[in-house]
């Protein structure tokens, strides 16, 4: 069943071009239309004035990317919150907002309870983004988008994450269209970019040998720092979570602009610093953050796009992902950090598919 792969996680990382192609297929057919989210969406989505996303773990990081998309592309206010926090605080609900829960399994207890709480506060427009058909959370929601990642067996979520991002991009585009912020040319532009995405992800997967060489260095470390900005800050968070979850290396992620507000004190020549540095409008800012790290002796491991000017130098290692792909870039940049965590764990001999203390589906508090 594993074919040429050593673990489910590795297989699932490599299944991403297909998982993404399968998940974008209805979007490429229909464009950004409410029908993608189920039969009631044509009625409910036009009423939506804001979005509240609730999720746990990796699904929460998908939500955190979506916040940038929904506000920038659709011009709709968007909040994101961890389910275990949302469910236990006094929330001021706005029933004109769409409550979106994201859960690969559809069975996560905190996410389910947060959804019930939102409903009890008067939220009557709820959407579930889920990978398991007819699981508890989509059954309790008004609208649903099923990602088509196929069964995900490794505890570390990989292909579910990238397909959740597709679902969320579809939501941002659909809300943008409903709010008159997406003309035909812009819609076609996004659809073209999506069509090319599986190929770009395949290119990123082909970087595996280079990433394996980096992972060998990581495996000897006790700590790592991940930096990103804007859309890629959540990818830094996801990279740090993957690394700690399966290799047990302590990893933290920060928005790069926060470095000098505290974490810079941690940096010395024993602290590897991974930087997600796509060729976007924040690149120059990221480069100056990198200089701050280098000046303290920190070793930099930079994921840069093919079309940006970066040179390797002493203490600065660069792996180039494909050409910059605009707002879809976080989907592409998720792949190398998954591979880095996988190969670091392999070096350390941990149980990659079943890391200690963790379960695939968290149905308890
Ligand atoms: O099934 P869910 O998406 O609701 O699961 C949420 C988290 O438990 C999950 O993403 C967890 O963080 C992963 N093991 C991370 O790889």
Automatic annotation (TrEMBL):
It comes from the Bacteria. Its main location: cytoplasm. One of its GO terms (molecular function) is glutamine-fructose-6-phosphate transaminase (isomerizing) activity. Its EC number is 2.6.1.16. Keywords: Aminotransferase, Cytoplasm, Glutamine amidotransferase, Repeat, Transferase. It is an enzyme of class 2 (transferase). It is found in: Cytoplasm. It catalyses: D-fructose 6-phosphate + L-glutamine = D-glucosamine 6-phosphate + L-glutamate. The active site is at residue 360. Signal peptide: none annotated. Residues 41-181, 214-355 form the SIS domain. Catalyzes the first step in hexosamine metabolism, converting fructose-6P into glucosamine-6P using glutamine as a nitrogen source. Homodimer. This is Glutamine--fructose-6-phosphate aminotransferase [isomerizing]. It comes from Jeongeupia naejangsanensis. The lineage of its organism: Bacteria, Pseudomonadati, Pseudomonadota, Betaproteobacteria, Neisseriales. The chain holds residues 244 to 608 of 608 of the full protein.
């Amino acid at each position: 069943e594993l074919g040429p792969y050593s673990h489910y996680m590795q297989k699932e990382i490599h299944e991403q071009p297909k998982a993404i192609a399968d998940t974008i297929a209805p979007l490429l057919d229909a464009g950004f239309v409410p029908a993608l989210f189920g039969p009631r969406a044509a009625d409910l989505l036009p009423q939506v004035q804001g979005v509240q996303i609730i999720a746990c773990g990796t699904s929460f990081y998908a939500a955190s990317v979506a916040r940038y998309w929904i506000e920038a592309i659709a011009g709709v206010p968007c909040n994101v919150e961890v389910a275990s926090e949302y469910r236990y605080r006094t929330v001021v609900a706005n029933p004109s907002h769409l409550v979106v829960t994201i859960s690969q399994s559809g069975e996560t207890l905190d996410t389910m309870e947060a959804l019930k709480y939102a409903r009890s506060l008067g939220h009557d427009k709820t959407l579930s983004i889920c990978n398991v058909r007819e699981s508890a959370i989509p059954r309790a929601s008004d609208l649903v988008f099923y990602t088509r990642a196929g069964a995900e067996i490794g505890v570390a979520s990989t292909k579910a994450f990238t397909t959740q991002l597709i679902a969320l991009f579809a939501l941002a585009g659909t809300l943008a269209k409903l709010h008159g912020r997406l003309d035909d040319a812009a819609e076609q532009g996004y659809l073209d970019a999506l069509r090319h995405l599986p190929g770009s992800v395949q290119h990123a997967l082909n970087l595996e040998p280079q990433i394996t060489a980096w992972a060998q260095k990581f495996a000897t470390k006790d700590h790592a720092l991940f930096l990103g900005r804007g859309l890629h800050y959540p990818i830094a968070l996801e990279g740090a979570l993957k690394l700690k979850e399966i290799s047990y290396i302590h990893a933290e992620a920060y928005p790069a602009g926060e470095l000098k507000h505290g974490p810079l004190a941690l940096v010395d020549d024993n602290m590897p610093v991974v930087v997600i540095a796509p060729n976007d409008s924040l690149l120059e800012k990221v480069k100056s953050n990198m200089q701050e790290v280098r000046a303290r002796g920190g070793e930099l491991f930079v994921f840069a796009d093919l079309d940006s000017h970066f040179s390797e130098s002493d203490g600065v290692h660069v792996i180039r992902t494909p050409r910059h792909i605009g707002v879809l870039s976080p989907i592409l940049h998720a792949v190398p950090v998954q591979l880095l965590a996988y190969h670091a764990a392999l070096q350390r001999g941990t149980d990659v598919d079943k890391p200690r203390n963790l379960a695939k589906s968290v149905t308890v508090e």
